């Protein structure tokens, strides 16, 4: 991705937009089970996502990560507590302020790449030419200009997720929410996508909250990590990652990286 090209395009004020902070306050979620009993999936979750930061939430499978992200997105109601964007309580439907990328491929198979990216834009008051500008800008951001007229089935898994990320970004979300977006990819593609995502973040500085069970992925991408405990899911620890902002893939082998990894793994093993 070429930064000059990106600056030239800038019709979208993503790069210089002051994204609101997102916070989760005293949030719990339980589901009714047999009889009048309840299963508590999340208990008293408190966390803060700071503007322009890349934050990861790590935790083992089944500890409630997706449930939490779905609540933040507005897809599931919390049992108690609230989600605030820029200090304002958000309730109900997913808003354009919270763009979501899921683990599975969620592109519309009958739409082209460009039409998929444009999908949310038709609901905004925006002229056709503005929509076209935005779509070509984000095709460029994710490096898929040549595939504008391809259909999802013609793309690899990594390319599909790049389209899904472009589609979420096109709505200029205050916070980009991602639920294990690379979970379905092979190891090599996954590393390429991590590199791609970090480059994208350092160009746009969009505020990101990503969920992963992959500790290495979390450390490589983040400024801040929240470690979630299991049954019930609680925030066990908050770790700030003091690695340089510009990171190459082989930073994963650096002693300071390995030390953070050991610390996070120990926290998760205590479960
Ligand atoms: N609609 C539901 N009804 C009852 N239990 C649920 C429901 N959704 C999720 N759960 C339970 O919540 C727990 C956490 O699930 P999930 O959030 O998907 O975890 P993760 O994403 O960390 O793997 C699981 O034990 C799951 O069975
Ligand atoms: Mg999940």
As a whole number of angstroms, the C-alpha radius of gyration is 19 Å
SS class = alpha/beta
Subunit arrangement of the protein:
single chain
Question: Helicity, in percent?
Answer: 25-40%
* Number of extended strands: 10
**Spans of at least 5 consecutive residues with low confidence:** 1-20
* CATH C-level class: Alpha Beta
CATH topology: Rossmann fold
Count the domains.
1
The best one-word shape is: globular
Subcellular location: Cell inner membrane
Keywords: ATP-binding, Nucleotide-binding, Transport
EC number: 7.6.2.9
Membrane topology: Peripheral membrane protein
Question: Care to describe what's here?
Answer:
By secondary structure, this protein is α/β, with parallel strands linked by helices. The protein has one domain (10-106, 176-269): 3-Layer(aba) Sandwich (Rossmann fold). Helix content is 33%, strand content 23%. The chain contains eight helices and ten strands. It has helices spanning 3-9, 65-73, 113-118, 128-141, 157-170, 187-204, 215-221, 255-269; strands at 22-32, 38-49, 54-58, 80-85, 88-90, 98-101, 175-179, 207-212, 224-228, 235-240. Strands 6-7-8-3-9-10 form a six-stranded mixed β-sheet, with helices on both faces. The protein has a four-stranded antiparallel β-sheet with strand order 2-1-4-5, with helices on one face. Strand 7 (175-179), helix 6 (187-204) and strand 8 (207-212) form a beta-alpha-beta unit. Helix 4 packs across helix 5 and helix 7 (215-221) crosses helix 8. The longest helix has 18 residues, at 187-204. The chain is globular. Mean pLDDT is 87; it is low at 1-20.
């Amino acid at each position: 991705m070429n930064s000059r090209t990106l600056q030239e395009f800038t019709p979208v004020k993503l790069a210089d937009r002051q994204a609101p902070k997102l916070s989760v306050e005293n949030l719990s979620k339980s589901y009714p089970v047999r009889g009048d009993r309840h299963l508590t999936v999340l208990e008293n979750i408190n966390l803060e996502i700071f503007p322009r930061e890349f934050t990861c939430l790590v935790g083992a499978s089944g500890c409630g990560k997706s449930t939490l992200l779905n609540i933040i997105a507005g897809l599931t109601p919390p049992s108690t507590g609230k989600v605030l964007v820029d200090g304002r309580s958000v309730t109900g439907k997913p808003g354009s302020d919270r763009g979501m990328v899921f683990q599975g491929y969620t592109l519309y198979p009958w739409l082209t790449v460009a039409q998929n990216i444009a999908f949310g834009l038709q609901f905004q008051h925006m002229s056709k030419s503005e929509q076209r500008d935005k779509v070509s800008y984000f095709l460029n951001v994710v490096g898929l200009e040549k595939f504008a007229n391809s259909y999802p089935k013609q793309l690899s898994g990594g390319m599909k997720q790049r389209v899904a990320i472009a589609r979420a970004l096109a709505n200029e979300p205050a916070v980009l929410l991602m639920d294990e977006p690379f979970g379905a990819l092979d190891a090599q593609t996954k590393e390429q996508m991590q590199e791609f995502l970090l480059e994208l973040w350092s160009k746009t500085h969009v505020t990101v909250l990503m969920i992963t069970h992959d500790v290495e992925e979390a450390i490589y991408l983040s400024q801040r990590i929240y470690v979630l405990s299991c049954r019930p899911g609680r925030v066990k620890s908050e770790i700030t990652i003091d690695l340089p902002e510009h990171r190459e893939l082989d930073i994963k082998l650096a002693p300071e990286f390995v030390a953070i990894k050991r610390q996070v793994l120990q926290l998760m093993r205590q479960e």
